[in-house]
Amino acid sequence: MIKTKKITLEEPALIEALQQHKAIGAEALYDMYSASLLGVIFKIVADREIAEDVLQETLVKIWNSIHQYDATKGRLFTWMVNVARNLAIDKLRSKDFRNHSKNQDIENHVNAIDEQRNTTYKPELLGVKDLVEKLKPEQKKIVELVYFQGYTHVEVSDELEIPLGTVKTRLRMGIMELRKYFK
Amino acid sequence: MESGILELYVLGDLSPEEKLKVEEMATLYPEVKAELAEIEKTLGELADSYAIEPSEGLRDNFLSKLTFNEEDTNTSISNVNLNNKQQTFSSHNNAKVIPLNSSKLNFYKYSFAACFTLLIMSIAALFVLYNNLQESKEQLAVLQSSNQDYANQVNYLDKKVESTNEILSIYTNPDFKLVELKGTANSPESKMLVAFNPKEQKVMIDMKNMSMPAHDENHQYQLWALVDGKPVDLGVFDGVNPEAVMKKMKAIDKAQAFAVTLEPKGGSVNPTLEKMMVMGAI
């Protein structure tokens, strides 16, 4: 894929451009974050086409509600990922998505479920090291459920039948573990 | 800090009260803030590691949904769009892409409109001209026929003048001798006039003022000249002849008298004297 120029801005400049609804802001937003956001969304909805729809929604929502972002409370990307995750999870639970799944052939059903549960290998992720794989199984499960399935820690606690405190600790340990790889 | 609440804060998985508490702590303790930044960074990088490049059209699609505040944005955006599109084309097939610039397109558009208008106007003009032509043709035909009428009339008058002149020339010519033929016992009422010019050996009969009884289809009158007591044939004529005024008969240079007999059609070698209708001596 060739692009003439990818526009990148420093975070404060980007935020300002977005708040003023300048074209350069929209272009930079797309060029800087669309791939990462699509990755997160895809992890959740497990369908390329739907993921791109959700990405569009996410970007438009970011554009329209940039004033809700408070720079003192965290990074822009954290906020954007949360917007993307929420929209993706809404999609996953929506009637649309369930119909979409129903339309798939019986034979594909097992695959579809596997895909939605992230248990199969996806060619789209070729070359990307699956960092979560590096975690201990109990940490991995929680990070996946919370970060990519949008479960709340309370839901995870119910689902895995482990105490809330343990969920939080394992999540923390998992993220601490991941930090090492990014150092 | 060790409880995992900061991670949940970054993940947006806290109640509003808990959130406020974390934010309060972050402003009070720099190490909390640093820890939060660290978690954010990690989760950000985790997300980055799963990055998938979106489809090519998505960028333009997204940008087209937005409205911008600057005035110059449209051009910058459309330029970017144009670039991307051209690259899409060239990356899919190596065919040369020749962009149609809009002014050229406009030129063709207007040319087409102009041509079409001209075509319509031409057809209308052709129609009007065709009607005029038909009208002219009709007028021409009328004029031609009236012209023909005039020509006929002129011809008729010419002929009339000619014959009148002929008669006049005969009657005024002193060389012509006018011989009046009078009715015989066969037809006492009959009479006719013969003009004789011995000099030019001309014999004319006046058809107009002739008064002879009608004859049937099988007979004709025959003019005879009496030359030294012998009858000489001068030709036949019909009793009724509406066209001719003067009729020229056969030539003779001398005669003492003229006579007309009724003969079978075509004439006879010798006159049938019993059927002599008129006669007159010079």
Description of the molecule:
Chain A is mainly α and 183 residues long. Chain A has 2 domains: 1-119, Orthogonal Bundle (Rna Polymerase Sigma Factor, Chain: A); 129-183, Arc Repressor Mutant, subunit A. Helices cover 68% and strands 0% of the residues of chain A. Chain A has 9 helices and no strands. In chain A, helix 8 crosses helix 9. The longest helix of chain A is centred in the N-terminal third of the chain and has 23 residues, at 23-45. Chain A starts with 10 loop residues before the first helix and ends with a helix. Chain B is an alpha+beta fold and 282 residues long. Chain B has 4 domains: 5-49, no CATH class; 57-92; 106-172; 177-281, Immunoglobulin-like (Sandwich), CATH 2.60.40. Classes of the chains: A mainly alpha (183), B alpha+beta (282). At the A-B interface, helix 2, helix 3, helix 4 and helix 9 of A face helix 1, helix 3, helix 4 and helix 5 of B.
Specify the CATH architecture of the largest domain in chain B: Sandwich
**Assembly context of the chains:** heterodimer
Q: Could you estimate the helical fraction of the residues of chain B in percent?
A: 40-55%
The radius of gyration of chain A is 18 Å
CATH superfamily of the largest domain in chain A: RNA polymerase sigma factor, region 2, helix turn helix motif
Number of structural units classed as domains of chain B? 4
Number of distinct beta strands of chain A: 0
Count of distinct strands of chain B: 8
Globally, the shape of chain B reads rod-shaped
What's the order of the H and E elements of chain B? Answer: HHHHHHEEEEEEEE
Quickly count the helices of chain B. Answer: 6
Identify the CATH architecture of the largest domain in chain A. Answer: Orthogonal Bundle
**For the largest beta sheet of chain B, what order do the strands appear in spatially?**
5-4-7-8-1-2-3-6
- Helix percentage of chain A: 55-70%
What is the percentage of strand-forming residues of chain A? under 5%
Ends apart, CA distance between termini of chain B: 174 Å
What percentage of the residues of chain B does DSSP assign to strands (E)? Answer: 15-25%
Largest β sheet strand count, sense and barrel closure of chain B: 8 strands, antiparallel
Largest sheet of chain A: none
Unreliable spans of chain B are 71-93
CATH fold description of the largest domain in chain A: Rna Polymerase Sigma Factor, Chain: A
